[in-house]
Amino acid sequence: MSKTLQELTAHFPPKWDEITICVTKDQFIIKKCDEIVRDDDSVAVGMNFQVVCEPREFLSYDIQYQSDITFCLREFKFLLGLADLLNLPMTMYFDSRGR
């Protein structure tokens, strides 16, 4: 998993702060969506970007519930690089929103 994700995130601009990973039973999506909150509390959506992967691109893929999780891109890329450097598999477990 770490090699696949590392290849995907290698081309993301370093100025991006966060990415969101959305998982369903059929898709793994990495997306970037800039939302700007205006003075009148309305939301304007800026640049949108997403990469969609199929479950067969991973060694193991088991999703019970559709979920989204947001990561700091810089830290996420560091973890991917470390897992690859140490030749460790990367497994993600998450199920509900944190604080």
Automatic annotation (TrEMBL):
<protein>
    <submittedName>
        <fullName>Uncharacterized protein</fullName>
    </submittedName>
</protein>
<dbReference type="GO" id="GO:0000076">
    <property type="term" value="P:DNA replication checkpoint signaling"/>
</dbReference>
<dbReference type="InterPro" id="IPR007268">
    <property type="entry name" value="Rad9/Ddc1"/>
</dbReference>
<dbReference type="GO" id="GO:0030896">
    <property type="term" value="C:checkpoint clamp complex"/>
</dbReference>
<dbReference type="Pfam" id="PF04139">
    <property type="entry name" value="Rad9"/>
</dbReference>
<dbReference type="GO" id="GO:0006281">
    <property type="term" value="P:DNA repair"/>
</dbReference>
<dbReference type="GO" id="GO:0031573">
    <property type="term" value="P:mitotic intra-S DNA damage checkpoint signaling"/>
</dbReference>
<dbReference type="GO" id="GO:0071479">
    <property type="term" value="P:cellular response to ionizing radiation"/>
</dbReference>
